[in-house]
């Protein structure tokens, strides 16, 4: 598989499918990324709660905010501003 950044639309698909009870591998196949990418994404968007399937709840909006903040902070390590 080729490397790609997940888009907000991809994150919404993950949220919808995961909340509906889909397996991580099925979600990965649908989006076209490795399962490890989905696991990392689920960690990124973890809300601290459980969903109706008693799994860690995932929020596409929260994950997108974290990604945008990480992009904004790139290259700032160790610099004094």
Explain how this protein is built.
The chain has 81 residues and is mostly helical. It is built from 4 helices and 2 strands, in the order H-H-H-E-E-H. It has a two-stranded antiparallel sheet. A hairpin with a 5-residue loop joins strand 1 (46-50) and strand 2 (56-58). Helix 1 packs antiparallel against helix 4 (60-73) and helix 2 (24-31) packs across helix 3 (35-44). The longest helix is centred in the last third of the chain and has 14 residues, at 60-73. The mean pLDDT is 90.
Features:
single chain; 81 residues; mainly alpha; two-stranded antiparallel ribbon; 4 helices; 2 strands
Number of helices: 4
Kindly estimate the percentage of residues that lie in beta strands according to DSSP.
Answer: 5-15%
Main sheet summary: 2 strands, antiparallel
- Number of E-type strands: 2
Describe the global form: globular
Q: How does the helix and strand content classify structurally?
A: mainly alpha
The side-by-side strand order for the widest beta sheet comes to 1-2
Poorly predicted spans:
none
Helix proportion of residues, in percent?
40-55%
How big is the Rg?
14 Å
- H/E element sequence: HHHEEH
N-to-C span: 40 Å
């Amino acid at each position: 598989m080729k490397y790609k950044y997940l888009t907000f639309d991809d994150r919404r698909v993950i949220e919808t499918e995961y909340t509906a009870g889909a397996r991580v591998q099925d979600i990965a196949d649908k989006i076209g990324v490795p399962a490890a990418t989905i696991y990392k994404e689920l960690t990124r968007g973890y809300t601290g709660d459980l969903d109706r399937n008693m799994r860690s709840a995932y929020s596409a909006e929260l994950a997108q905010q974290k990604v945008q903040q990480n992009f904004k902070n790139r290259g700032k390590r160790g610099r004094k501003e």
